[in-house]
């Protein structure tokens, strides 16, 4: 029997209640004390440190930052897979932990496209069975309607209907990602969360998948949270961007505004280092990222910041409003992209990136 698709969680939240709201969220992992391999002593590693974030219905947000900045941990908190050690993490006005524990509505509404799409698919199951699994789990359609719904979903993600009989091992990297997206869409979610969902593919396949994701987001009004290393991907897919450094959001705002005139010196460095669209982000600045177990005093970016001043080594800047719809965690934010080196003149505005993507999807390079 088909279960009701979306039994209400409780009384409807107010119309302007965000899908997700993080208020001063901290996530500390206990890790072995450095240099004490055989001791049981542990220390706290703050993967997230005072994160404030609001994601409204239908919004698209890119989470960007170097490896280790806390992007995946933030996503796990949104998914309720990691509980904050401090602060509040809400989904539609109630704690995520509570929403997750009551019925299946949260799991149905918030879908994840895994970073390792191939690893997330059982190799012994056909594509059809893989897509039918969430349909059945959430009681989306009666059994007899499953094949038709599977065919619809395959078509929606640009795969031929006869892919249903194939196994993941016979699919290309791009096709596997499409199956993972079809599986995520099967539960009819309103939120799609993706961790590096297009990385590691050839440029043409990436372009096709990005076109697909943007189409889905626009047609279905999905709320999208997308982790990426690629500023071009962020610009193309997401209206808003949050740039992370060592467990903090250091700058957030409209993607085009932030990329055109970054205000935090770390955003400037990322932007300056971004080569062309579709090229992986290199190390943006000289100097090592400090260990999260041994953060510098004051501003955590002070050991690498070209604009560092005396007070930066004693005062810890928090995310504060910086113009309309923008926030920056810096004691001396830059204005109008000042200090942006000329080497960074690659146009990352969404129209320019869209044109680049169009060129790539027209290129008959695809192994997809
Ligand atoms: N389960 C865990 N146990 C201990 N440390 C963790 C765990 N998950 C993440 N970390 C640490 O938290 C920090 C942020 O990691 P992560 O969220 O994976 O960053 P990103 O996705 O930006 O690369 C890193 O220093 C990482 O080593
Ligand atoms: S607070 Fe100081 S060190 Fe930190 S980013 Fe701003 S200018 Fe650089
Ligand atoms: Mg990660």
From TrEMBL:
Q: One GO CC annotation, please? A: plasma membrane
Q: Which UniProt keywords apply?
A: ATP-binding, Nucleotide-binding, Transport
Region spans: Disordered: 341-368
SUPFAM superfamilies per the UniProt record, alphabetical: P-loop containing nucleoside triphosphate hydrolases (SSF52540)
Where found? Cell inner membrane
**PROSITE patterns reported in the protein's UniProt record:** ABC_TRANSPORTER_2
Give the UniProt record's GO annotations in the biological process aspect: peptide transport; transmembrane transport
Residue stretches of biased makeup (Polar residues): 357-368
The record describes its membrane topology as: Peripheral membrane protein
Question: By what name is this protein known?
Answer: Putative D,D-dipeptide transport ATP-binding protein DdpF
* Organism (species): Roseibium aggregatum
Gene name, please?
ddpF_2
């Amino acid at each position: 029997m088909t279960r009701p698709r979306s039994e209400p969680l409780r009384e409807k939240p107010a119309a302007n209640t965000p899908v997700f709201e993080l208020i001063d969220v901290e996530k500390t992992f206990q890790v072995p004390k450095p240099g004490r391999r055989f001791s049981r002593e542990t220390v706290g590693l703050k993967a997230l440190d005072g994160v404030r974030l609001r994601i409204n219905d239908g919004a698209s947000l890119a989470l960007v930052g170097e490896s280790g900045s806390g992007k995946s941990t933030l996503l796990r908190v949104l998914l309720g897979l990691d509980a904050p050690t401090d602060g509040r993490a809400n989904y539609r006005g109630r704690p995520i932990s509570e929403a997750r524990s009551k019925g299946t509505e949260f799991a149905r509404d918030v879908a994840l496209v895994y970073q390792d799409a191939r690893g997330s698919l059982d190799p012994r199951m056909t594509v059809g069975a893989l897509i039918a699994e969430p349909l059945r789990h959430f009681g989306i359609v009666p059994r007899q309607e499953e094949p038709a719904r599977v065919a619809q979903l395959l078509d929606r993600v640009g795969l031929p209907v006869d892919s249903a009989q194939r196994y993941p091992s016979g699919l290309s990297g791009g096709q596997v990602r499409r199956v993972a997206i079809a599986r995520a869409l099967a539960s009819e979610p309103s939120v799609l969360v993706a961790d590096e969902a297009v990385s590691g593919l050839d440029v043409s396949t990436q372009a096709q998948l990005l076109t697909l994701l943007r189409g889905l987001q626009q047609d279905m009004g999905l709320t999208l949270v997308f982790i990426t290393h690629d500023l071009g991907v962020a610009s193309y897919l997401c209206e808003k961007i949050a740039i992370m450094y060592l467990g903090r959001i250091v700058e957030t705002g409209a993607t085009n505004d932030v990329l055109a005139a970054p205000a935090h010196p770390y955003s400037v460095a990322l932007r300056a280092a971004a080569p062309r669209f579709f090229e992986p982000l290199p190390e943006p600045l000289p100097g090592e990222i400090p260990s999260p177990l041994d953060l510098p005093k004051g501003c955590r970016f002070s050991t690498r910041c070209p604009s560092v001043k005396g007070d930066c080594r004693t005062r810890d800047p928090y995310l504060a409003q910086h113009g309309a719809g923008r926030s920056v965690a810096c004691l001396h934010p830059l204005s109008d992209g000042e200090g942006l080196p000329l080497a960074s003149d690659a146009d990352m505005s969404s129209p320019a990136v869209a044109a680049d993507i169009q060129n790539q999807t027209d290129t008959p390079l695809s192994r997809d």
